[in-house]
User: Fold these one by one.
Assistant:
Number 1:
Amino acid sequence: MTRFPQLDAFRGGPGLVRLIGHRGARGVMPENTLEGFLFTLSAGVPLLEFDVVLTRDGVPVVTHNHHLDGAATRDADGNWLAGQGPRVSDLTLEALQGHDVGGVDVRSPYGARFADQVFLSGVPVPRLGDVLDLANDPRHGDVHFLLELKSDPDQRDDPQARAAAVEAVVTEVRARGQASRTILHSFDWRLLDACRRAAPEMPTSYLSQMPQTPSELCEAMALAGLPEDALSAERSLPLIVADAGGQLWCPNAQDVTPTLVVEAQALGLIVLAWTVNETEEIDRMIEAGVDGIVTDYPGRVQHRLRLRGASW
């Protein structure tokens, strides 16, 4: 048995590419909802990726942004929120769950992008515990979680705040008995340092996206807690992740090359590419040899893998 048995669920191999439902199955179901996660599991995709932030009363909840998104949130009267909604950290759990996240406003740019989503009503933002409890259902015995911790911009440089946020999430995972099914995942690599200290039994997954401009490079390096010159011809992202103690490298699909995948896997890293939705990109990731594909459209990836005689 490896030190981290949960890694085996995400490791690919010959004829095997793992399939991870991004925020459930965002292309066809409301994102980060129990309904979306249950749909993904019913489709034979047991690996779930989702995002976690804290409410004002310190409850870990599953939602992508620090603010409620008006394009995907209605109030208690069924009205779309105007623009950017309130910060999740300013709302109690009770106040947060008074909102409905069961659909998108197709008149908005975000809603138009995901106009194939089903439209549901009466869908609250789930607690992290609600999602973790899916693993206690015998029907979902193989479910594993790729849990993304979101870095609060207002507390990014506060180590005590980072530690407290990590502790709240880790406590919930342990309380639900799901540490052996959970991988901790973030763009904020300093949060992952805190994760290793708080939860040495859970592996860490390093998200990355190569910046396009010098200013974006500065911002990305600052978020990761790295000096601006950390990347060089001698120090690639896989090497930095491995040296930091990570077990998974999760690059944006646009940054994936076969050479980097080979390097990462030689360093012992599992490589999961995100967010892979278009057929051409799915094929390119398969050919690059990634261990897994994170996608909004699990069905598309299933079809491509089946046509190639591969499984997930």
Number 2:
Amino acid sequence: MAAKDSPLKQFEIDPISNIELGGYNISFTNSSFAMLITVLVITLFLTLTVNTRSIVPTRMQLISELMYNFIAQLLSDTVGDNGKKYFPFVFSLFMFVLIGNMVGMIPYQFTFTSHIIVTFALATIVFIGVTILGFMNHGLKFFSFFIIPGVPFYMHPLLIPIEVISYLSRPISLSVRLFANMLAGHTLLKVFASFVVSMSFFGIFPLAFIVALTGLEILIAFLQAYVFAILTCLYINDAYHLH
């Protein structure tokens, strides 16, 4: 358990309502609440901006259209025409991670993307889905993905295990990247926030740093959502085109 004033205190999962079903704890927690808020914000934002359909778009409508075009172009550039059918999934994933990161930037709100169990669950869904897609498109030929074209056959016993390990580590690398960045950034913000209080008048210096760091964290929140989305697109591309 983290100490009261520990920077890690903000990452503790606390139950809002205790629920047990069949011997399993399925309590509604602060993490669950943050996810619910994220889904409600996304739903409300897209509903209000899409329903306007003004000839001269409002600022919010313009942001919505930019996000739509951003993911559509990302899929087109990485997957091609085959990527259109996966737009709803990639767009939903991108928005969930992005808004989840942004909600976590609000003071006293919980950042669920700072927990490896959440990011690993998202990455595992992508990994399993892409693997199934690869077998659907290529059957057993999908195993040729682990053979690098043009490499001498006597190198295969060495390179194939490396390729298999690399493929199996995708959900780990995808999840750890997001989790580690959000965890480190929020911990750093908390540490400098404690300096503001303890240094009295001279706390203006760490306060100025916090303002700059917050801007950087907002940028990282977007970049991490982008990285998660683009790697998902690249994995989908691999399932279609192998090497």
